[in-house]
Please model this.
Amino acid sequence: MSSVPPSFRICTNCDDDMADTYARPQYRVQFKIEDEEGGLLELSVADKCDLLKDLPPVDLRDDEDALEELKERLRPVLGELISIGRKEEYVTPLLEVMVASWPSGGEPEAGRDYIFCSHKLLQ
Model:
């Protein structure tokens, strides 16, 4: 299991005294994907996407079953990268991905944010 320091187990904006009472776990998953032409796109994963839908957020350090469930849901997208950890270069399965997009912070001149909604394995 990851050795995330306890100080990073909750939102850094939360007061330490309130952490055990008011803080709740939340999944934050982000990907950087590359299309067939080599273009890169950074995506956040939506809570309601097929990867996280109906998966109650818990502290994964305290719940081995939830950690295994999350790994199994991510495995079709990440392939064996989920087992081997970080690598400089790793080819994951070819996917068809549905992405939603909107202006960053609601401001068109600020760029765009992208969210991973669903996927289908192509290979």
